[in-house]
């Protein structure tokens, strides 16, 4: 990973500030589209509580999300600010008011269909559950946004996601076949929304399927990296993109071993 | 798997017809929430084309979806009705007008960060990419719904999803580290929306995180199974839930071996 020089830093910062999701002009008045495109991962919350009916509606969006063969291979562990603190001994990260730990759940399907419903296929069952649980997670996050509630999906902060799967399985007393993916924390945003972290250009992340996979144009990934590094430096006074990556690098080996054991049942 | 008798069948059918997503009364006028809760997987499309600007806006919702450390580990293979037919020799399933094959992409991150950015951790990198690509998939599906466009995420029909990962990797000439998860097919719904396939009760899919995982109440999974079987029989004249499961059972062993090879690079 090459770090950018000062010119790259400034260029990166300017690109972040000017970048906006691009709704076609003809559709700029569509309220829900705007909610989806303007959603941000928010990390600063007001002290105002989320009413029960609003939180229920967010969960309902997860409950009715689509899933492979309607198997609904997800579970949601819900928390208030108080119950999170009672459980984990510290506040919900970013002082959010509610939290949902989203679990990929293959256990419940096996109760319904029988443990021998499928030939031994741990990776496929795991993949299916991770995909479905993630669909539900996104539906809940967008539903929250539609209700004026901001959120962020955590992967690491406060041992909240897949890097601490084994620890979370213990904490939540999960049966085998249930995997903690991410914690979504919810609250009312404190202050204005931050600019969008640098997204890759549409022509980098999509391609004409009839033509086959397209590699990124030269320089695109380096430019994105410059923006990531500049954006982190500007918004996290005490951290950096490299430091954030190092947290992952340090935790991922243990997480890999744990996950291997959890999927394949070896030790 | 125990099949229900005729009373179970009728009971299942009545439950499906009466089940509706439950927005709290106080929020029933929220248009955006209603779009999310009333979304259905649609399998019957009108011949009307989706305008380019509408399809672009759907893709944009995927491009700006959130992801772990903003890594955007997804790619979208896009198709029109014509390019799908040219590529695969048959129409998009259900005569949809556009299709997006959603790919979990670990390849591009490695270009940016270097192949040795992380200690060897194929399962974690795979999980992260599957989760992120699924978040993008759900965002695109909800964005479509917001624009009046219906969709369904396919896992099997027409070799469109994770059960045919290896075949799709060949078809799309995917580099190693890129995995086809699902194909979303889009179009304008033909006729009225079908009732919601039977969702599990909220108290079955969620639990108080401070209390720990909760097993389903007795009978809940059997009741759900009755509804699934009845619903399939009522809506698929030539198929059944058991037949659909058998398709998965037959394909999953090969898919498991392929996926193992694709993740771990063995043969």
Decide which structural class fits the backbone of chain A: alpha+beta
What's the CATH architecture of the largest domain in chain A? 3-Layer(aba) Sandwich
Report the portion of residues of chain A in β strands.
5-15%
Level of helix content of chain A?
40-55%
Spatial order of the strands forming the largest sheet of chain A: 1-2-4-3
Mean pLDDT of chain A: 92
Q: How many domains in all of chain A?
A: 2
Cα(first) to Cα(last) distance of chain A is 34 Å
Along the chain, the helix and strand elements of chain A come as: HHHEHEHHEHEHEHH
- Contiguous helical run count of chain A: 10
Rounded to an integer in angstroms, the radius of gyration calculated over CA atoms of chain A is: 20 Å
CATH class of the largest domain in chain A: Alpha Beta
What is the molecular shape of chain A?
globular
- Within CATH, the superfamily of the largest domain in chain A carries the name NADH Oxidase
Number of strands of chain A: 5
Instruction: Please name the two chains that share the biggest interface, counting residues whose Cβ lies under 8 Å from a Cβ on the partner chain.
Output: A-B, 120 and 120 residues
């Amino acid at each position: 990973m090459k770090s950018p020089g000062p010119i790259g830093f400034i260029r990166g910062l300017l690109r972040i500030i000017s970048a906006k999701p691009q709704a076609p002009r003809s559709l700029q008045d569509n309220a829900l589209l705007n909610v989806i495109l303007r959603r941000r991962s928010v990390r600063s919350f007001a002290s105002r509580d989320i009413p029960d009916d609003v939180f229920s509606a967010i969960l309902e969006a997860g409950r009715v999300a689509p899933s492979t063969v309607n198997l609904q291979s997800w579970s949601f562990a819900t928390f208030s600010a108080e119950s999170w603190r009672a459980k984990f001994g510290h506040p919900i990260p970013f002082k959010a008011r509610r939290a949902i730990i989203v679990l990929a759940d293959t256990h419940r399907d096996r109760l319904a269909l029988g443990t021998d419903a499928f030939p031994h296929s741990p990776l496929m069952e795991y993949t299916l559950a991770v995909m479905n649980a993630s669909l539900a997670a996104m539906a809940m996050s967008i539903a929250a946004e539609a209700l004026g509630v901001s959120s962020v999906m955590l992967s690491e902060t406060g041992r909240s996601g897949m890097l601490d799967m084994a620890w979370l399985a213990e904490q939540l007393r999960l049966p085998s076949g249930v995997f903690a993916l991410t914690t979504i924390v919810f609250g009312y945003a404190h202050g204005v929304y931050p600019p969008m972290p640098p997204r890759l250009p549409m022509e980098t992340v999509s391609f004409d399927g009839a033509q086959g996979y397209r590699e990124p144009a030269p320089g695109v990934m380096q430019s994105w990296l410059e923006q990531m590094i500049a954006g982190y430096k500007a918004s996290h006074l005490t951290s950096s993109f490299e430091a954030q990556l190092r947290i992952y690098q340090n935790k991922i080996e243990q997480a890999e071993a744990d996950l291997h054991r959890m999927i394949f049942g070896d030790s």
